[in-house]
Amino acid sequence: MKKKVDVREMLSDEMPSDSRHARQLARRQLIAEIVIAEGSIRIEDLTERFGISLMTAHRDVDDLVSRGIIRKTRGIVTAAPTSLIESSDVYRATRQSDEKKSIAQTAVRFVEPGQAVILDDSTTVQQMTTLLPSKVPLTVITNSLVLINELKGVRDLNLISLGGQFYNWCNAFMGHITTSEIRRLRADTVFLSLAAIIDDIVFHQSPETIETKRAMFESAAKRILLADHTKFERRALHRFAALDEFDAVIVDEDTPIEHLSRMRSKGINVVVAGGKQPD
Question: Could you say which of 32, 139, 157, 220 would form a disulfide bridge with 190 (CB–CB 3.0 to 4.6 Å)?
Answer without folding.
Answer: 220
